[in-house]
Specification:
The complex is a heterotrimer. Chain A is an alpha+beta fold. Chain A contains 17 helices and 34 strands. In chain A, strands 13, 14, 15, 18, 21, 22, 30, 33 and 34 form a 9-stranded mixed beta sheet that branches. The longest helix of chain A is centred in the first third of the chain and has 31 residues. Chain C is mostly beta strands. Helix content of chain C is 0%, strand content 33%. Chain C starts with 6 loop residues before the first strand and ends in a 9-residue tail after the last strand. Classes of the chains: A alpha+beta, B alpha+beta, C mainly beta. The interface between A and B is large, with 81 and 98 residues.
Chain lengths: 701, 645, 96
């Protein structure tokens, strides 16, 4: 008889460390960490869980015995793409279009690059497709834009292609035909032939994994899924068995990039790529919901990049035709945008004598000058150090001693070219970096039709809390949050993630039209999707009554190329609902692109439908402690001189120990709070308070 | 009403004496850049035109009060300088009457004033602060229907500017914030497809609104004078960067001549563009003396068109580091002989300007810049061989779509053109059009959704890239077939260079292959398809069909077509190579063959690489022998050139 | 100074082949007048090619030492060599 199952575990396998978060039924968080073990990743996972178990005074087996869910996020897929060591995979496609993933709509040259990189036309290259041309087979068949068969499928060619691919030793075959999403019959027939002739081969078809228009993204999705699928599935089996062997009794759930977890057997291998950051956003959404915050900008300042994503009206924002590793794909994805503005971002002077910060980065190797690893160019971290924001003896909790003198020399030397002194130069680096970050924040919020004043900022990463007040204040952001789980927030998000899967369909209708008929067709399209979703979730092993369904619809104005999506209610539709959908679409469009952008006279087109099936996570809300005294002086660990723009000079500033702070403690700026993994900078005139969840909140209003 | 001088004097006063520190400039110039890029993205999202929404054919620019470009969004380069002419004329003739007011939107598409050809349609709006005009925003899209004598905006049969559709001359389509239906109708009622037209109009209006709102907010926050000063400084900054780069390179003269073979449909004629690029210190002169007389047909540029195509090469290949604006133009001096095809006379046809001779101009200058780059090691990485020389082949069609509306449109697949090779790399295959740094072609499905055609194939065209030590990028090869039995369809195409080599190689690479258009009519294709028989999958298979199947000249006017007719566009779109093909590593040639970038025949004849076709391996010994044979042949065939008396 | 993938201008202001070090001519001259040239029928190169020499033929220029292909012009038959690279030797740019 098992003990009461009280734990929920989230594991995030990163490049260097595997993070683990264990939540108990009261929301208490225990953190575990282990080094990632390349090749045998399950050891790192077990190690991280065991580490957390030890903090709870338990053995690994005992913890797993008391655990009701293990969720994991993994970089296995990402690493396969980076190292190019995926499965030997083939592709079957419509004859005449074998080169689609090579042509890459020409735009593959610049997908995933910044405007600065794109301007340098001579140097933009395409990423190399993961399937060589010799393993791409075209077969005679054709479906037209109405889903009608223009050329029937030539089965004999398919059989030959499968046999040849087998002879080439492929482990996986992807199938993507033109218009296959609209009429999947040929793709399904090909899949059947593959199963018959090569039952051991991993096979996927585009109409199942990415049933949306645009063959380039859809083919990429199929191809990458085939490439990462077999090794990924092997890894899952290994981990599942390892956990089972240590007493875990439930499904292992895996994070997917659209922001939910799925059981190993029905997860999408491609969906694991970039799922770590998605985990962070999911965690932010959930945390926001506990805090009563619907609108959150999540910000993460790492070594090389500044990553931003949005939770608006309680939901993460989905990306449009997202790229993974510069390959445009078509599965739903939480949008996370990066610019080259991290701690390692380098300051330099261009040919016209203008002072620049980024986008070039020194990364972590050689890294900032102050790391003493051979970096020569002054970076943002070096400026943070010179201005007193960072503590040379307590950077990342003291794990890395920073060489302040070296940072000063490098910055002084660069400044001399501009005729600036040390501090002036460091201030320029700090300010320019913050303003670039502000630009990205502003862009993310406004281009989705929102107002930054309605948002709070969650600050993650080693550099996030140090810069957050500076990049948030110019936008009149309401407040900034720093979390005790900051360092393992992706794992927290993974642990608390709902089970989620998105089902798509393409039903076309023109508006205005016969509303009654459209309502009927739409109702039936959604009912079919609902049925499919429930059946699939049941097949996976969930109970129908636990599944929550939500719907969205993709539309555009007639003749337009791009679509936008809005939510629609889950019910049967009548004619009036169609009017309502039109009205709400116009409203949404106007909010996005402004008055006059909507071309109402042209009419509208319904292009696609999607249903999201969700099963809520069993994870408990964070544990709270009552608010105590506002006096935070007990956490004061010393003073040092810190540069403040308001005073135009250095000023003796209180340094506080995050670990020693208690809920209710309020600390007035200027001051600095140091945690083991990050540093929170509180400028003059602002103050920070620790709330009941142990989070530090800086009010900017 | 204030006159032009008063308006400009007020604007100058607004920006005078506002100090901008280096740090402020870096921050605010970046912010302005982010604003114009965001506004341009709005056009792409809203537009109904595939060449805009997906091909990226949209310009978004911020001008100062006088109309000088201070900042161009990343994207279409062609129109930065030309569109300045529009603002200039508005100021000249409308300042007093009817007056320039807040909320006005002006429209232009006249190539004689500042545009390129009638398809390129500009909307511009003044930005006001405290009741004074301080700046302009402009948005331009390629609008593929101009009410010309043929559908699709670029009539191959044009013999006069009057054949190329309506030309709008700065009318206000919006006055003080309200659409002017009457002026709008002048345009709408001249077009074959007003619905499509309005969508692009909405896209541009929305982008001007987005840009203006963001710009005003910045002015609120930092002060009008400061933002205006940053705009002015953008021009100075770009000029400074441009001149610094020029000073880094050797002085000299580089020359290039490229030929075309068509002056329009029915006008097969050899013409040439000759350019001498003279670099002295921090100045660059481009002298087009020696270029042909203008064509009788639409293969001409007005001066603004030539300047636009020069800017394409200069902006993308030479001064890519600098913000694209009037500043990068300042070190340049251009000589365009009057009455030549680079400076056509008033009322001459010029509908083909951007594809041809425009791309020849950009391609030639690109190659000249590449030659100049050799003189400083610092820039070797920027060397790109010639590319895009007349490679912009585009089918135009009109008639009824499968959805029942009348339209005129154009296919933009040519944007997947091979890029020139560098000195350490092959050119990008199916890469980009030089004029649009964000080049993108539509998915076949999106194209088939809008147009009454299906594609029999779209693939990388074998042997299209220029063979060399580094191979030029492969161009796209594709075909379209009328499919939906709609009531009426007509089709023609623009193209160039069937009987010449428009895209050259550099330093010993052979030119790219030539354009080879084919029409297949009266074949049994439709019948065969329903039986499940393989359809033609490339041009050679198409040519083997029985029926009326043959190749046509470079340019063909639109003419009625039937369901099942196939139009194939092969051979074009390759990028130039670099260096002697005999220097290419045999293994790389093998890889080219495996990937269908080159044929076995090319490997053997030009690269001297012998591949055993059954096992797809290089025969090293036979390769050595073949290469020796080629060298011996070179010695035998060649002698020093002597002028014949 | 390098002026071409295969050509340099040396200290003595002579154009020289980078591969075989063959001296070609003075830096002030058109190298194409000092190297062997041959006409090549475009149809000898695979791919779609021009068919009428009066409109377009290819002129090849070789290094007189190693017979490396230095340049290919596409011109109407009978056209003289184009002077494509003419470096000004007495100038003050940082490139020299």
């Amino acid at each position: 008889m098992a003990d009461k199952e009280i734990y929920v575990i989230g594991v995030d396998t990163g490049g260097t460390f595997t993070d683990c978060v264990v939540l108990d039924e009261t929301g208490n968080v225990t953190i575990g960490k282990a080094e990632t073990t390349p090749g045998i990743l399950e050891e790192g996972v077990l190690g991280a869980i065991a580490d957390a178990a030890s903090h709870l005074g338990l053995t690994l087996e005992r913890l797993l015995d008391k655990t009701r869910a293990v969720n994991q996020g993994t970089t296995v897929g990402t690493n396969i793409l980076i190292n190019r060591d995926g499965a030997r995979a083939g592709l079957i496609t419509t004859e005449g279009f074998e080169d689609t993933i090579y042509v890459q709509r020409a735009v593959g040259r610049i997908d995933g690059l910044s405007p600065d990189e794109i301007r340098h036309q001579a140097t933009c290259r395409k990423p190399e497709p993961v399937i060589p041309k010799e393993l791409i087979y075209g077969v005679t068949e054709r479906i037209d834009c109405f889903g009608k068969v223009a050329i029937p499928l030539n089965r004999r060619q398919v059989e030959e292609a499968v046999d040849e691919l087998k002879a080439h030793g492929v482990e996986a075959i992807g199938v993507c035909l033109l218009w296959g999403f609209l009429n999947p019959s040929h793709e399904q027939e090909i899949e059947k032939i593959i199963h018959e002739r090569a039952p051991e081969v991993f096979c996927n078809i585009s109409s199942r994994i990415a049933p949306t228009i645009r063959e380039y993204g859809r083919t990429n999705t199929v191809v990458i899924d085939a490439y990462v699928g077999p090794p990924m599935i092997k890894w899952y089996r290994n981990l599942k068995n390892a956990l089972k062997g240590r007493g875990y009794r439930h499904e292992l759930l895996t994070m997917q990039v659209w922001g939910g977890v799925m059981p190993a057997e029905s997860m999408m291998p491609i969906g694991t790529i970039n799922s770590g950051p998605a985990g962070g956003v999911v965690g932010s959404r959930l945390m926001g919901s506990y805090l009563g915050l619907d609108n959150v900008v999540t910000t993460d300042v790492g070594g090389t990049s500044f990553d931003v994503s949005l939770v608006a009206e309680g939901k993460p924002i989905a990306a449009r035709e997202p790229p993974i590793m510069r390959y445009r794909i078509s599965i739903p994805t939480i949008e996370v945008i990066s610019i080259g503005a991290g701690g390692g971002t380098v300051a330099w002077i261009d040919a016209a004598g203008l002072f620049k910060v980024g986008p070039v980065s020194a990364g972590s190797l050689p890294g900032p000058v102050s790391y003493g690893r051979g970096g020569k160019d002054p970076t943002v971290t070096d400026a943070d150090l010179v201005l007193g924001y960072f503590n040379p003896d307590y950077f990342l909790g003291g794990k890395l001693k920073l060489d302040k003198e070296a940072a000063e020399d490098a910055i002084r030397k660069l400044g001399e070219e501009m005729g600036w002194g040390l501090i002036e130069t460091a201030r320029a680096i700090f300010t320019i970096q913050n303003e670039h970050m502000t630009d990205l924040l502003r862009l993310m919020v406004t281009r989705r039709g929102y107002d930054p004043r309605d948002f709070v900022v969650f600050a993650f990463g080693g550099g996030g809390p140090a810069h957050a007040a500076f990049y948030s204040a110019p936008l009149s952001i309401k407040s900034i949050y720093m979390f005790p789980e900051s360092a393992v927030f992706s794992a927290y998000g993974i642990a608390t993630s709902d089970i989620q899967r998105i089902f798509n369909f393409s039903m076309y209708a023109r508006l205005p039209g016969d509303n009654e008929d459209i309502a009927k067709r739409l109702t039936s399209a959604y009912q079919d999707l609902d049925k499919k979703a429930l059946a699939e979730m049941e097949l996976i092993g969930f109970r129908r009554e636990d599944v929550m369904l939500s719907r969205s619809i993709s539309m555009k104005f007639a003749r337009q190329v791009n679509m936008e999506s809005i939510d629609v209610p889950v019910n049967d539709y009548v004619a009036a609902d169609i009017d309502d959908i039109q009205r709400r679409f116009i409203e949404y469009y106007t909010r996005l692109y402004g008055e006059g952008a909507a071309f109402v006279e042209a009419g509208m087109e319904i292009m696609a439908q999607s249903v999201t099936a969700t099963i809520l996570s069993p994870a408990a809300p964070p544990a709270s402690r009552p608010l105590g005294s506002a006096d935070g002086s007990k956490a004061l660990k010393g003073k040092r001189n810190v540069y403040w723009e308001k005073f135009g000079d250095f000023h003796s500033t209180g340094i506080y120990d995050f670990q020693a702070m208690m809920p209710g403690n309020t600390i007035k700026g200027p001051s600095i709070i140091e945690a083991a993994t990050t540093t929170l900078v509180i400028p003059p005139d602002l103050s920070a308070m620790m709330n009941e969840y142990g989070q530090v909140v800086v009010e900017l209003e | 009403m204030a006159n032009k001088e008063q308006i400009l004097e007020q604007a100058r006063r607004m920006r005078k004496d506002v100090e901008v520190s280096d740090v402020e400039y870096e921050i605010l110039s970046y912010r302005l850049y982010s604003v114009v890029n965001e506004a341009r993205q709005a056009i792409l999202r809203i537009s109904g035109s595939p060449v805009v929404a997906e091909g990226g054919e949209a310009l978004y620019a911020l001008y100062n009060a006088e109309g000088l470009g201070t900042l161009l969004a990343c994207g279409l380069l062609l129109h930065m300088i030309g569109t300045q002419g529009f603002v200039g004329e508005i100021l000249d003739i409308q300042s007093e009457h009817p007056g320039i007011n807040d909320g006005d939107i002006f429209m232009y598409n006249d190539p004689g004033v500042g545009g390129i050809h009638a398809c390129d349609q500009w909307l511009g709006t003044p930005v006001f602060r405290e009741g004074k005009l301080v700046a302009w925003l402009g948005a331009l899209t390629h609008t593929a229907e101009t009410g010309a004598i043929e559908p699709g905006g670029m009539p191959p049969s044009s013999r006069s500017l009057l054949h190329e559709g309506y030309r709008v001359q700065g009318i206000k389509i919006q006055e003080k914030g309200h659409l002017n239906r009457a002026s709008l109708n002048c345009v709408l009622r001249s077009s074959r497809d007003p619905g499509y037209y309005m969508l692009d109009m909405h896209a541009k209006i929305a982008s001007l609104n987005v840009g203006k709102e963001r710009l005003l907010k910045l002015m609120d926050q930092y002060g009008t004078g400061k933002i205006l000063s940053v705009m002015e400084r953008n021009i100075e900054y770009s000029e400074k960067l441009a001149r610094a780069k020029l000073r880094d390179l050797a002085d000299g003269t580089w020359r290039c001549t490229i030929y075309g073979d068509s002056g329009g449909s029915g006008l097969e004629r050899l013409w040439k563009i000759s350019i001498a690029m003279i670099k002295e210190g921090d100045k660059l002169k481009l002298d087009f003396t020696g270029s042909s007389e203008e064509n009788e047909g639409p293969v001409n540029c007005m001066a603004a068109g030539t300047i636009g195509n020069i800017f394409v090469a200069i902006g993308s290949q030479l001064f890519w580091e600098a913000p694209w604006n009037y500043g990068v133009w300042k070190p340049l001096e251009v000589t365009l002989p009057e009455g030549s095809l680079v400076n056509a006379k008033w009322m001459s046809p010029c509908g083909m300007c951007p594809p041809t001779p425009g791309t020849v101009i950009s391609s030639a200058i690109g190659g000249l810049i590449a030659r100049m780059y050799f003189t400083n090691e610092k820039y070797w990485g920027d060397i790109n061989s010639h590319w895009m020389g007349c490679n912009l082949v585009a089918p135009l069609y009109g008639g009824y779509t499968q959805h029942g509306h009348l339209t005129g449109s154009v296919f933009g697949d040519a944007w997947a053109s091979g890029i020139g090779a560098g000195i350490d790399r092959d050119g990008v295959d199916t890469g980009a059009a030089m004029m649009t740094v964000e080049s993108c072609i539509t998915d076949v499905e999106m194209s088939e959704l809008t147009n009454p055609f299906i594609y029999p194939w779209r693939r990388e065209g074998i042997d299209t890239g220029g063979p060399g030590r580094f191979r030029g990028g492969t161009g796209i090869s594709y075909a379209i077939m009328a499919h939906h039995s709609t009531p009426y369809l007509e089709l023609g195409w623009i193209g160039q260079g069937k009987e010449v080599s428009t895209t050259l190689g550099l330093c010993g690479a052979y030119p790219c292959s030539s354009f080879f258009p084919v029409i297949a009519r009266d074949t049994k294709i439709k019948e065969n398809m329903t039986k499940g028989l393989p359809k033609p999958d490339n041009v050679d298979e198409l040519l083997s069909l029985s029926g009326d199947v043959k190749s046509y000249p470079s340019m063909v006017a639109t003419h009625p077509i039937k369901d099942g007719d196939i139009f194939a566009f092969d051979g074009a779109h390759g990028g130039g190579g670099m260096g002697d093909p005999l220097d290419r590593e045999p293994e790389k040639v093998l890889n080219d063959v495996k990937n269908r970038w080159h044929s076995l025949e090319m490997a053997e004849k030009v690269y001297g690489v012998i591949i055993e076709p059954n096992i797809m391996k290089v025969d090293a010994e036979a390769t050595r022998a073949r290469r020796d044979e080629i060298i011996a042949d070179r010695k035998m065939r060649s002698n020093i050139w002597k002028e014949k008396k | 100074m390098r002026i071409h993938y295969y050509l340099d201008i040396d200290k003595n202001k002579k154009i020289r082949c980078r591969k075989c070090n063959q001296e070609i001519c003075d830096a002030t001259e058109n190298y194409k007048l000092h190297v062997p040239r041959a006409e090549k029928d475009p149809s000898d190169i695979p791919g779609r090619r021009p068919t009428r020499p009066e409109m377009c033929t290819y002129y090849e220029y070789f290094c007189p030492g190693c017979y490396t292909l230095l340049d290919v012009e596409a011109q109407p038959k009978g056209s003289p060599p184009i002077w494509d690279i003419q470096i000004k030797m007495d100038c003050n740019t940082s490139a020299l």
